[in-house]
Design goal:
The protein is α+β, with helices and mostly antiparallel strands. It is built from eight helices and nine strands. It is globular, with a radius of gyration of 18 Å.
């Protein structure tokens, strides 16, 4: 089940040095570069060899991707597509971790032939997890409380932000929202907020300081990750629907931005 897969996935920074079979890598890249997404965005992913990050050990193989930052929903859909691939990697026994900053960006961007109107939002190493985490990885996980998640009622709401949604009242969306709750995010900030109203599920971004630059907003990747988890869980549960961008006009808390809506058929 997708919920169990989402809960099984963890950020892996220590690998065992074994390179995955080429057939597995080819399938992974095919999935990435032919992925279907709720809102079409131009993007490209490449498998990069002999690369490095100071927080990664045991592999020099990475997946990197690029998109045009001027396209609406670019980073959100980048997050959606790469997370879908990361869940596939988890299913195949491969390790991964979202990396947005702790790398030599110039080296990675050169390998991606990055153009002026493009950004490389994130990369992930590829390989098999080591049997034991390094001390550095253990300390990093403790620092961001990687295994903890915010309470359900702090993330999800009914009708308005003033009415927290209980698991009992979540109805058909319970598993899908629990799968969102299990999603990874930058420094485990969990910036998604969701309002369920009249058969529609509205996704919002709660902005934290330090994640926005002139060309990017790293937390929009997190929203794409959350939407991916929700979408896959709905499909598994047989819940049919479609994504639209149609702000319902719900009064938002400070620093909260509407992103997209899932409408149930």
């Amino acid at each position: 089940m997708i919920k169990e897969l989402a809960e099984k996935r963890r950020s892996v920074r220590t690998f065992d040095g074994k390179r995955p079979d080429q057939a597995v890598l080819d399938e992974l890249m095919e999935r990435l570069n032919t992925a279907q997404m709720p809102f079409p965005v131009s993007m490209e992913f490449r498998l990069l060899d002999h690369m490095s990050s100071p927080v990664i050990s045991g592999t020099d193989l990475y997946i990197a991707g690029k998109c045009r930052y001027t396209e609406p929903m670019a980073e959100v859909m980048f997050g959606y597509v790469l997370e879908e691939a990361i869940l596939y990697m988890t299913e195949q026994g491969l390790g991964s971790v979202w990396i947005g900053g702790t790398m030599d960006r110039k080296a990675f961007e050169a390998k991606m032939d990055l153009q002026e109107d493009e950004i490389m939002p994130a990369v992930t190493p590829v390989g098999y997890p080591a049997k034991k985490m390094s001390l550095k990885e253990t300390l990093m996980r403790k620092g961001v409380k990687a295994d903890s998640r915010m309470p359900f009622m702090e993330l999800f709401f009914r009708d308005s932000f003033g009415c927290p949604l209980t698991e009992t009242d979540a109805g058909q969306y319970l598993m899908s929202l629990q799968t969102v709750q299990a999603a990874p995010s930058a420094v485990n900030k969990q910036p998604w907020r969701v309002v369920v109203r009249d058969g529609a599920v509205h996704f919002y971004e709660r902005h934290d300081k330090g994640y926005v630059t002139e060309k990017s907003d790293m937390q929009k990747l997190d929203l794409g990750i959350a939407m991916c988890h929700f979408d896959l869980a709905c499909k598994e549960a047989g819940i049919k629907g479609s994504w639209v961008i149609s702000d319902p006009g719900i009064r938002c808390p400070e620093n909260t931005e509407y992103i997209a809506t899932f409408i149930t058929e």
